[in-house]
Design a protein that fits this description.
Layout (H helix, E strand, L loop, with lengths): L1 E12 L2 E13 L4 E5 L6 H8 L8 E10 L2 E2 L5 H7 L4 E4 L13 H12 L10 H14 L5 H4 L9 H14 L4 E5 L7 H18 L2 E6 L2 H7 L2 E6 L2 E7 H6 L4 H8 L40 H5 L4 E3 L5 E3 L14 H13 L1
Parallel strand pairs: 3-8, 3-9, 6-7, 7-8
Antiparallel strand pairs: 1-2, 1-4, 4-5, 9-10, 10-12, 11-12
Helix pairs in contact: 3-4, 3-6, 4-6, 6-7
This protein binds iron/sulfur cluster.
Length: about 350
């Protein structure tokens, strides 16, 4: 449905050209929920926002690649053609709903405006304000805003953070988009509200068939909603696969680090969580080899000198790490085998 091929995006900053995305390829299948995960600055939001071309053109360079929607390259469309796609075909919700809501308009009027812009009556004309209002109340009820009729007349600041995010989902639903991009939609919310928002997104996918790209650094949220996952590091996708591939069969040391830093069920409360030592690479001068080499306990000489090739581990599972390459100077071992060998050596 949506295919990102070898996307390269740079920004011009005081320090130089930041190569934020350095050749990302991803595929969103119809009805899929694809999670893009990784630390801040790994390029996940830049990749997703490039789909809607939301970056300031004065400082952004799309240096290469394609973003294909039904075979059309979104990077080549005019601004007018992109306006037709934003909202109607692809909608986006952000971490902070206040950045997208108008603080001077009631919630009801904002949803009515969106509906009148996007929905046409049987005669092909804009639906009436009365019809749009009824539909807006229905949408607020669908996203479980209590007393929807009354709350239509309230302003964004009268809603809690979780309710504002639900309003954003209602507005996204109002456009009935084929694709929803959710950029860290639950980061600012407490755990119970997070679960409700994720459940709503899942319902949107199941009931309306919306395909979803969710950007997150929260592996717990990803596990509960995603069908496929792409792990990004240093402006690249380092591992991708189904949610089972990533959670149960991951092979990239960075993916393992991300998963080790999540609390596990039954873990003692006083146990310290593992963290990944070190900092991500400077993308003004990105490394020539594996971007994770400086932080990776498995790093070999080849890792620093050469970019690891992508290895297909199954039809769905891809991983870019020298450990998996048949030409790797060291014998081909899985992470578990490496750890077992290291344990034996330490014990010996
Ligand atoms: Fe570690 Fe080398 Fe694999 Fe990179 S390529 S993740 S440095 S083992």
């Amino acid at each position: 449905m949506l295919e990102i091929k070898n996307l390269k995006v740079s920004f011009h900053a005081y320090s130089g050209e930041v190569q934020a995305v350095r050749g990302v390829s991803l595929e969103l299948k119809s009805g899929d929920i694809l999670a893009i995960v990784g630390e801040s600055g790994c390029g996940k939001s830049v990749t997703a926002q490039s789909v809607l071309r939301l970056h300031d053109p004065a400082i952004t360079d799309y240096k290469g690649g394609e973003i294909l929607l039904d075979g059309k390259d979104l990077l080549k469309l005019s601004e007018k053609e992109m306006q037709e796609i934003r909202g109607k075909v692809i909608s986006m919700i952000f971490q902070d709903p206040m950045t997208s809501l108008n603080p001077t308009m009631t919630i009801g009027n904002q949803i009515v405006e969106v509906l009148r812009e996007h929905e046409k009556g049987a005669d092909g004309k804009k639906i009436s304000r009365k019809e749009a209002r009824e539909r807006a109340i229905e949408l607020l009820k669908m996203v479980r805003i209590p007393n929807a009729e009354r709350r239509m007349n309230e302003y964004p600041h009268e809603f809690s953070g979780g309710q504002r995010q639900r309003v954003m989902i209602a507005m996204a639903m109002a456009c009935a988009p084929r694709i929803l991009i959710a950029d860290e939609p639950t980061t600012a919310l407490d755990v119970t509200v997070q679960a409700q928002i994720l459940e709503l997104m899942k319902e949107m996918q199941e009931q309306k068939g919306t395909s979803i790209i969710m950007i997150s650094h929260d592996m717990g949220a990803v596990a509960s909603i995603a069908k496929s996952v792409a792990v990004m590091y240093g402006g690249l996708v380092v591992e991708s696969g189904t949610v089972e591939d990533i959670f149960y069969r991951h092979e990239h040391p960075y993916t393992r680090g991300l998963l080790d830093s999540v609390p596990k069920e039954g873990q003692p409360k006083d146990r310290k969580l593992d963290s990944i030592e070190g900092t991500p690479p400077d993308l003004v001068k990105p490394p020539v080899g594996c971007p994770f080499a400086d932080r990776c306990k498995y790093a070999m000489k080849v890792c620093k000198d050469h970019m690891p090739p992508e290895n297909a581990l199954s039809e769905s599972h891809r991983c870019s790490c020298w450990l998996l390459d048949p030409d790797c100077p060291q014998p081909r071992l899985s992470l578990k085998e490496y750890d077992a060998k290291e344990g034996d050596q330490n014990n010996g």
